[in-house]
Amino acid sequence: MRQFLIVGHEAPTTPSFSLDDLAGGAGRLDILCRCVTSAFVRSHGIREDVRVHLVLNDQFTIQFDGSNLKRLNPDERSTAALIRTALENRENAIGHMPAESTPGVSIRRMGFAETVEKLKTETTPIRLHETGTPIVDIDPPDDPLFVLSDHHSFTNDESDQLNDVTEHQVRVGPVILHADHAITIAHNYLDTSGYEKY
Amino acid sequence: MRQFLIVGHEAPTTPSFSLDDLAGGAGRLDILCRCVTSAFVRSHGIREDVRVHLVLNDQFTIQFDGSNLKRLNPDERSTAALIRTALENRENAIGHMPAESTPGVSIRRMGFAETVEKLKTETTPIRLHETGTPIVDIDPPDDPLFVLSDHHSFTNDESDQLNDVTEHQVRVGPVILHADHAITIAHNYLDTSGYEKY
Q1: How does it assemble (chains A, B) (predicted)?
Q2: Which of A40, A63, B15, B59 could be stapled to A46 by a disulfide with Cβ–Cβ 3.0 to 4.6 Å?
Q3: Which residues contact B33 (CB under 8 A, 6 or more apart)?
Q4: Same topology for domains B7-109 and B113-193, yes or no?
Q5: What element of type H or E holds A152?
Q6: Contact residues on chain A for B197, CB-CB shorter than 8 A
Q7: Angle between the A29-40 and A179-193 helix axes, to the nearest 10 degrees?
Q8: CB pair distance less than 8 Å for A178 and B43
Q9: Residue among B147, B28, B190 at smallest CA distance from A185
Q10: Of A13, A11, A14, which Cα lies nearest the Cα of A22?
Q11: Does residue A119 sit at the B interface (CB-CB below 8 Å)?
Q12: Closest chain B residue to A136 measured between Cα atoms?
């Protein structure tokens, strides 16, 4: 399974944001929405063997699970609506137990460190970063967890936590890209690496 | 220069669409907006040596020119607003002359065939298609023009016109992707092909 964790440093933690202002008042939720789309959407369907974890302002983590994900459309606005519905259910997320808001979407009361700690046992965490090893120089790992940040860099605390668990720090090319574009390239690398001639 | 032409088969030809319904009433304008973002946006800036041509319902072509493009943000809604402004200026596009609506964005009264005919002399047209040659098997061409379609396939007429001018038909991987994701991978291929170790 391929998993992606994206940190939204200014992302909303209540459902009171407007779908008309995702790139402004909603703390650049547009970036996180595009990351979800890049992770799941292919032509005429979704990638079922994928999970995405959006860390919202270090307070909540929303998980999208491709194996039973419904109602995901490729546009930003409808993805933001799924996130808003998840936040409407945040009071049902007690302790570290998830609360499912729509099929395949659930919210947990967990920040970055707790989410990474939970996922590291079942994945190979990989930090996508501009100073890393070219992605084509690493062998495709089993069960990769690609960890990315939004328009801000990882904080020092986040970097320290990641350094403790990541085997690889990789970059996708010489041009520094947005997180959603990096996800598309990571997928393509994995898609093509198993094929001599695809 | 890298250029991208994307055909919007149901795209609006008047500015009367709602920014709140890009994926519905606006004829999947969300796809074209994401293509613009994929073509131009990199972290903290845009790719200046890029042009994008959006063919709207075979009636108008809107050109985005990276060398003097302003006001482009990465979210779908603000890109759609630039397209709407271009359509508000459609009456100023007389004959095949462009009408500039905002810096770097102009509209022409040209459909698919006329736009391809105009561009073929200055580019190497490449059709991105699921049955093509793997992109890694072609040498990066000079001045590529990648031609893509929205959520619909090219019509028979469009295919015939493309067959007349394209040297290559390429695919980006074994998984069939949306146009905007294919653009991201095409960029990455060109970005990395000139570097032994990026």
Answers
A1: Homodimer.
A2: A40
A3: B22, B76, B77, B79, B80, B83
A4: yes
A5: none
A6: 134, 137
A7: 10
A8: yes
A9: B190
A10: A11
A11: no
A12: B197
Would you place residue A29 in the very low, low, confident or very high pLDDT band (cuts 50, 70, 90)?
very high
Chain A: closest CA distance from residue B185 (Å): 6
In chain B, what percentage of residues exceed pLDDT 70?
98
Strands (E), B60-178: 60-65, 99-102, 105-108, 124-134, 144-149, 168-171
Tokens of B34: 């994401």
Written out in words, the top-level CATH class of the domain with range B113-193 is alpha beta
Global pTM value = 0.95
Among the listed residues A65, A78, A80, the one whose alpha carbon sits nearest the alpha carbon of residue A29: A80
The sign of the dihedral angle between the CA atoms of A108, A114, A119, A125 is positive
Among candidates B187, B175, B128, B186, which has minimal Cα distance to B6?
B128
Rounded Cα distance between B97 and B99, Å, is: 7
Locus of tokens 């032409």: B5
In this prediction, residue A197 carries a pLDDT of 47
∠ CA B78-B48-B69, nearest 5°, is 40
**How is residue B16 written in tokens?**
């009367």
- B33-53 burial, b if ≥16 CB within 10 A, otherwise e? bbbbbbbbbbeeebbeebbbb
Are B74 and A31 an interchain contact pair (Cβ–Cβ within 8 Å)?
yes
- Chain A neighbors of B171, CB-CB under 8 A: 198
Is B7-109 CATH 3.40.1280.10?
Answer: yes
Q: pLDDT tens, B94-152? A: 988 999 999 999 999 999 999 999 999 999 999 998 889 999 899 888 899 999 999 99
| Domains of chain B by residue range | 7-109, 113-193
- Say yes or no: B74 contacts chain A, CB-CB below 8 A: yes
Which of A28, A30, A75 is most worth mutating to test chain B (most B CB atoms within 10 A of its CB)? Answer: A75
